[in-house]
Amino acid sequence: MIVAIDGPSGVGKSTVAKLIAARLGYAYLDSGALYRAVAWKALSTGTDPAASDAIRRLCATTTLKVSSTVGGGMVVEVDGQALQDELRTPEVSRAASQVAALPDVRARLLPVQQNFGRQAGVRGIVAEGRDMGTRVFPQAPVKFFLEAAPAERARRRHAEFVGAGQAADLAETQRELEVRDGRDRTRESAPLAAAPDAMIIDTSRLTIEEVVERMLRMIERKAAALR
To answer: May I ask the CATH architecture of the domain 2-226?
Structure first.
């Protein structure tokens, strides 16, 4: 069973994906963490995250490993170094938006994500990102596309930064989300869009638990139909 969850930043993808994975005993795949990992290495090596040729060379010499943890978590290793909080800074977020727009990077990370979905012994996976249902796992029997009002999304992302002890301005956070949205929806490779068979959920006025319960009901119906 593959559950694909797509949508822009700040709609709650990561939170609900982790909860659903934990409840169902599935592995959790955070595709955004892979792009953040490439962005982190670019920043660490002084490489321009928007320079296609330089990033292509960087990817060719970078070893990425992704593994699931007990309780529905995920760890990304870059050249043997496990990264967690390092991937969640505003600087890495901005750089990730740039590298994610490069077709070579998306092509490089596609098999990494798909191979994660083929791990032996995994009952199922919950994969969240921006092209899970349209490109990475188009065969997924359950697809969701989450959305929310721009102001609400900015508020959530700002609160996330502040909660992590990082300096952030709300207006700047919203501006960066708008820039990221434009880049994601218009990029050449796998632009952000809802799959034709995805269930669209507006999370603006819903609690996390309400979103999770609505999604679990859909997953249960799909699973029953496949038995």
So the answer is: 3-Layer(aba) Sandwich (3.40)
Task: Give the total residue count for the chain.
Answer: 227
Cα–Cα distance between 82 and 78 in angstroms, integer?
A: 6
The rounded distance, in Å, linking the Cα atoms of 207 and 157 is 16
Q: Distance from first CA to last CA of the chain, Å, rounded?
A: 11
CB under 8 Å to 2, separation ≥6 — which residues? 117, 124, 125, 127, 137, 139, 140, 141, 142
- Name the DSSP class of 87: G
Q: What global pTM score does this model have?
A: 0.90
Contact 72, 127 (CB under 8 A): no
Beta partners for residue 64, in sequence order = 78
Helices within the chain (DSSP H only) = 13-24, 31-44, 52-60, 90-99, 103-116, 150-163, 170-186, 208-226
Percentage of residues of the chain with pLDDT beyond 90 = 68
Give domain limits for the chain: 2-226
d(CA 105, CA 38): 8
pLDDT tens digits, residue range 187-203?
888 899 999 999 999 99
Measured CA to CA in angstroms, residue 206 lies from 12, 30, 158, 181, 210 at distances of 10, 22, 18, 22, 6
